[in-house]
Amino acid sequence: MEAGRTQLGPLELVGGRWTIGEATRPDTHWVEIRQDGLHQHEPESEGRLVPWPRIMAGIWLTWGKHSWTTNSRGTYTFKGMVAGRDGGWLHMTLRHPYEDHQLRFDQHARPYRAVDALRL
After folding, report:
1. Coil, strand or helix: which one is 114?
2. pLDDT (tens digit, 9 = 90+) per residue, 42-73?
3. What predicted TM-score, i.e. pTM, was given to this entire model?
4. How far apart are CA 103 and CA 95, in angstroms?
5. Of the candidates 64, 50, 65, 33, which has an alpha carbon nearest to the alpha carbon of residue 99?
6. According to the model, what pLDDT value does residue 1 have?
7. Region for residue 112 given its phi and psi (left: phi exceeds 0; alpha: psi -120 to 50; beta: otherwise)
């Protein structure tokens, strides 16, 4: 681990803030866990905030390049690592109005242990 960084698969502490995905490169998608909600960061955008009161119970994680092709929980190697490098999605149901919503994140260059992905 690098100095000042805690890594748990896609979940990482960077500069005092918890992030999901590769938050250190400017051209990536990642999610910041804030006190007021989940903030989606995107290239060339200010991003968008999903406030905690809108998020219903049951956030789940899938792997893949597109949110509509991620019907599985992913593929894992015999060594217990996440297979694939296309990134991932946090899926959730929002209330008022009710809608399915996804937040995208790009994977780090390092491999993720399956146990860390499951903890997330």
Report:
1. helix
2. 998 999 999 999 999 888 888 877 766 555 56
3. 0.83
4. 16
5. 50
6. 44
7. beta
Residue with tokens 């998020």: 55
Task: Work out whether the CA dihedral 109, 36, 89, 29 comes out positive or negative.
Answer: negative
Q: Which amino acid is at 34?
A: R
End-to-end CA distance of the chain: 18
| Owner of token pair 């000042």 | 4
pLDDT digits (tens, 9 = 90+) for 2-38: 555 578 888 999 889 999 999 999 899 999 999 999 9
Nearest to 12 by CA among 23, 27, 25, 3: 23
Sign of CA dihedral 86, 102, 18, 27: positive
